[in-house]
Amino acid sequence: MTPAARLSAAIELIDTIEKDRVPAAKALKEWGTAHRFAGSGDRAAIAGLVWDVLRRYASSAYLMDADTARARLIGMLRLERNMDTATMAAMFDGSRFAPAPLTEAEQAALASRSLKDAPAAVAGDYPDWLDAHLARVFGEDRAAEAAAMASRAPLDLRVNTLKSNRDKVLRALAHLHAKPTPWSATGLRIELSADARNPGIQAEEDFIKGAIEVQDEGSQLAAQFTAAKPGEQVIDLCAGAGGKTLALAALMQGKGRLIATDRDKRQLAPIHERLSRAGVHNADVRTPKGDADPLADIRSTADLVVIDAPCTGTGTWRRNPDAKWRMRPGALEIRLRDQAEVLERAVPLVKPGGRIAYITCSVLPEENGEQVRAFTGRHPEFTVVPPEQTASVWDEAEAFGEAALQSDEGWLMTPRRTGTDGFFVSVLRKSG
User: Fold this and answer.
1) What is the mean predicted confidence (pLDDT) over 165-194?
2) What per-residue confidence (pLDDT) applies to 196?
């Protein structure tokens, strides 16, 4: 397919996503099935265009002063890809499979309009109803913070120290141009261009042998802040597919007892194979069965309970740009109830002197600091471990402290400040 034909396909897909209200991933998959002639490079390029339009969905329409799929694509090419009008006009030439030529109105918008006076929700590309929520945590910086959350995310990897070390893996992945992450001592980063295909990490020998896992650096740091130690009893209460479980196992050096469970047993399905591949032998996966409590026999015994809490996922907008446009206020209310419920489930599991690590991939204050304050109000036997103490567990603490947002309740990482996904971490210790 020609570059112009790819633009036409992207316009068609954006139009489908808007009119049929289907998730972008589903629309892209169905388009690929219906257009078998498109090669893998074409599909990757078209997907890159679609995802970039969704990242700049509001600002691109504002720039072009038009609410259409075509306008959004043109606006994105200027805002995200820095494409000049002449380059665009060469592709929008009306030839076979190419988009129709740029109109006078489109050329005028490209020449005269900007985001200089755009509302914060437009400049930051997020739904209007979230403006007050983001203002509470970021203030006047909310447009800049949200714009960073609309940027493309790199591919981050975590080196499994149970099987290898970062220097060794760096040499093995030199062909992918992997580099060390800024903060995590076990992290690697692969920067991806807009049209880049997935580098196929799952086919790499180090992945097959369990030496690496795909994990955002922010998630790696969240696990680090728990300060899980060899010999402890650790419960991963919302283990899901096991990303943080594997990171906790590495921190524990395979020593102690690691118990992984999740209310949704379907989410746990991949964890068994991942633990095996990673060489984790001290993990006990507790799959729920009916109404029985899978943790009934281990109350008041945990040194650490990790809660990777269900949340709105606002911190992962870089990786799921269409999710923010499908998010509704009711979703926040549901997640707040879920978080309070899982925190209550953790309480009887912690032994005196033990701790809870509460983690979200959200930047909203209601899910983070406010949720922690409400919990300590209900349970005065728990107090927040000062954030500077949680950061002291690793070498980059001082530089990280200058970059991340610190509050009385914990740390908030953001793409703009730390180059990671948005993660909140709070550690609470039980008296005694």
Assistant:
1) 94
2) 72
Quote the CA–CA distance of 423 and 421 in Å, as a whole number. 6
Q: List the 212-214 sheet strands across, edge first.
A: 179-180, 187-190, 155-159, 212-214
Instruction: Identify the bridge partners of residue 350 per DSSP, sorted by sequence position.
Output: 302
Sign of CA dihedral 115, 419, 217, 213: positive
Tens of pLDDT along 74-118? 999 999 999 999 999 999 999 999 999 999 999 999 999 999 999
Task: Please list the residues that pair with 179 across neighbouring strands.
Answer: 189
DSSP letters, 153-212, are P-EEEEE-TTT--HHHHHHHTGGGT-EE-SS-TTEEEE---TTPPP--GGGSHHHHTTSE
Q: Exposed e or buried b for every residue in 244-263, given b needs 16+ CB within 10 A?
A: bbbbbbbbbeeebbbbbbbe
* Closest C-alpha to 222, from 308, 153, 157: 308
Q: Is the dihedral of CA 221, 246, 309, 257 positive or negative?
A: negative
If 0-12 CB within 10 Å is exposed, 13-18 middle and 19+ buried, where does residue 219 land? buried
Phi (first) and psi of residue 255, to 5 degrees: -115, 140
- Percentage of residues in the chain with pLDDT exceeding 70? 99
Query: What span, in angstroms and rounded, lies between the C-alpha atoms of 63 and 53?
Result: 13
CA–CA separation, 89 and 350 (whole Å): 64
DSSP letter string, 209-269: TTSEEE--HHHHHHHHHTT--TT-EEEETT-TTSHHHHHHHHHTTT-SEEEEE-S-TTTTT
Distances (CA, A) of 49 to 73, 78, 148: 8, 12, 18
- The alpha carbon dihedral of 250, 252, 256, 257 has a sign of negative
pLDDT for the residue numbered 37? 87
The answer to whether 390 and 410 are in contact (CB under 8 A) is yes
